[in-house]
Every structure is written in C-alpha cells, then in structure tokens.
Amino acid sequence: MSENIPSKIITRFPPSPTGWFHIGNARTALFNYFFTKKNNGTLKFRLEDTDRERSKPEYADDIVSGLKWLGVDIDYTNPYKQSENGDKYKKYLDLMLKNGSAYISQEEVKEEGQRAEVIRIKNQNKKIKYIDIIRGEIEVDTTELEDFVIAKSVTEPLYHLAVVVDDFEMGVTHVIRGEDGIYNTPRQILIQEAIGAPRPIYAHMPFILNEDRSKLSKRKQGELVSLTYYRNAGYLPEAMVNFLAFCGWNPGGEQEILSMTELIEKFDIMKVQKSGAIFNKEKLLWFNKEYIKRLPAERLEREITARLDKKYTYTKELLNKIIHIITERINTFGELEKYVETGEFDYFFIAPKPVKEMLIWKKDTNFSIPKNNLKKVLEMIKDISEADFTEEKLKTILMPKAEELGKGSVLWPLRVALSGRDRSPDPFTLLSILGRAESLTRIQTAINLL
Ligand code: GLU
Q1: In this predicted model, which residue has the larger pLDDT, 52 or 241?
Q2: CB 177 less than 6 A from any atom of ligand 1
Q3: What is the CA angle 301-348-409, rounded to 5?
Q4: Helix/strand/coil percentages in the chain, nearest 5
Q5: Does residue 330 have a pLDDT over 80?
Q6: For ligand 1, what atom is nearest to the CA of residue 12?
Q7: Cα 111 to Cα 117: distance, rounded to the nearest angstrom
Q8: Does the beta carbon of 163 lie inside 6 Å of ligand 1?
Q9: Are the beta carbons of 209 and 216 closer than 8 angstroms?
Q10: For residue 2, is pLDDT > 60?
Q11: 16 CB within 6 A, ligand 1
C-alpha cells in the first residue's frame, strides 16, 4: 500500500452544518487528524452547506468550537463554504455538458403537472473497483445507479458533484469518512472520471453503535450524541479524544491512556476495525476519571474551585484538605456541579442540621445510646490540641472505645453528627478536616438534639 501514498497527503473534514456536532463526526475528524499529522499532511476543513434550509451558522460554530476544544489544531480562518463557491461547480457542470458526460433532461414534476430541467450524468454502466484502506477492494456495478441527477441547473449543483469538485480542487489524496459514505463512493467516482479528477484513496470508518449494537441516533439518544453535551457536562477534552480514538481502533498492548501526541504517533489507519465500534459510557467515565487524576495540581484546583465558588466560601487550608476527597468521589466535573447543587458536600462548609432519627445506628434501640456514646467521644477528644487533631491520632484514640461499645453505635452517630448525612467520608477524616473547634460544636449540637 505504501507505494500508493502520494508524497504530500491532503485530507479533509467536510461537515454539513445541519445539526450539533455529532460524536461520530468528531471521531471521524480525529481519525483524519491523527492520520494527517502522522504523515505530515494537511487536513482541510470545509462546510458543506448546500442544503440552505437546514444549514445554520450556529451549527457551524458548534462544530468549529468542538474541534478546537478537542485540540484538532488546523486552520479554521474563513472556512471554505460550498454555498459561496457556485462558480466552481458551474465550471465543471459546463464542462460535463460540453464533453457529453452529462446532459440536461426534462423531468416531469408530479404535483404541478409541469416539466423541469435537471442535469444528469451519462452513466457508462461499468463495474468499478476501488480500494478502501479498511475494507479492502470493493467492486460495484454502477449500472443500477442509472443516469443520476448531479444538479438542478448549472448554478444549483447537488451534493455529490460539489464534493467531487471540492475534493479535486483541494487536492485531496485521502477521503477518510464514516461508513455511510460507502454508498456515495461509486457515484462520486463516476463524477471524478467524468471531470478527469484523480481518484483519492478511501477509508470508511465503522459506525459508532450503542451497546445493543443499534445505531447511535439523535432521535433515540438525544443530546448524548452531541459533543457539546460532554463539554457542558464537564468532561475533559483529553479524555474525550482518548475515548473516541478507541472507538474503532486501538494501538494494541496494555497502555490505554494516550495523549494526542501519542495517539498521532501510534495511529495506524490499516488497523481501524471494519465492524461497528461500541460507545461504552462506562469506559468514557473511566477515561475521564483517569484524566482528572492526572491533571496538574493548579488545573485541578481551578476546575474544582470554579464549581465550589458558586455556593461556598472557604479557606485555602480547607480546600487543600478536601480537594483529594472530592476528586476521588467524581468521574466528571459536571458531577461535582450537581453535588454542589444538591448539597452533597455541604458539611465541609456549613454546619449540618442532623435529623434526630438519623443519628441512631440501625441496631440500637433508643436514643440514649448515641447520646451517651457521643458524650464519651466528646470527653475523649475535647482536650486534644488542634495540631494533634489528625486522622491517625484520632483513630488511635477513638477506635478501641468504638470496638468496646460497638463500632456502629459509636462511629455512625459521630459521622452523622459531623456531616448530617447518611453518606459521607468516615468520621476520622471528617474530624481532621473540620478541625477541633468545629467538630466539638457539631458533636455538642447532636447531643443536645438527642
Ligand atoms: N458533509 C458530509 C457529512 O457531513 C461529509 C461526507 C464526506 O466526508 O464525504 O456527512
């Protein structure tokens, strides 16, 4: 295959701005980018906006900002738009009409009982063979395509003509696109032959499928198919890139966490799989968490404080104590945002108002048990200095007593007294985070309540 690779590789990513940036398209853009960068080529961006009714500038903006967010570092200035290049298509349509490879045909317009003109290609009705890097040799008998319509008029080209002209004029050497493109390829090859354009090398990427192998669709999965959903939900672009790279390809071996640079270096288009790639949401969460763990300290702090600041005021000292606890408990920063809203972590910042019934351990029979146990805990820790108020010290002091009186009967009310919740970090962690004074106050409040 290598002898067929032209000296300068030119690829393209030509989305139709008729909807929010689809993750399948984002994956296609990434594979183009990996392949192109690896081969020192150029990836060209163009907007296929010939469908004037469905194309919207906000969709084009969404696609561009999504690509930038992912780190697809290519030229987006004044993107080429098909809608602004009518002259180009007219030139080739005129040529085809002149050389007889296309002709004007009178069509009956059903509803109005009138006749209208369209331009059809003169199909040579032959078999064509082309190489798909991923699928091997593909042979198609083009006869059944008949003389298909390529334009409504010389100033109104249809999709296939515009794609072929643009790929030709942009010098595209490799067309790397989604599996659905397979059905377009024979028509596009016939047009290439008619205008004397060289045939690019094709690679059709497998679809991204749901776990039940159904197609990922906007109708069924809603916003989950748009890249913006993941941006808004606080996913990290590095995780998204790594995850999407593994949708249909993997570098082999054990290593799963790969940076953009490593992905480019390792990407091998010949190893992209033919069969559908499963969109595994759990795996995406796993990648995101791995990337959160690897964030540089300042960046992690920035992401976390951005969410905490929406509701709480706190000292840097407190932040330092809780940052790793928060990090352990989230897969995405969007989850933190939700936790802030629902008050999941309120106890770090605000004294809770425990519910009396929650303070009692499930096996205990009356409120005097947690009350007495909390009193004992208070006695044991009230004289510990602030400096000694550490997780380890507190554990050493309190654990033997808890074992003596029943762990649940001591540690459960203590934890609820400190957090007010039935889920929270363990009481030793909480005591050390809250510090001596605040801990004693919260325990006393719970005793009073009981
Ligand atoms: N505009 C087409 C799309 O968004 C691109 C198809 C192609 O890559 O040829 O599906």
Answers
A1: 241
A2: yes
A3: 135
A4: 55, 15, 35
A5: yes
A6: 8
A7: 15
A8: yes
A9: yes
A10: no
A11: yes
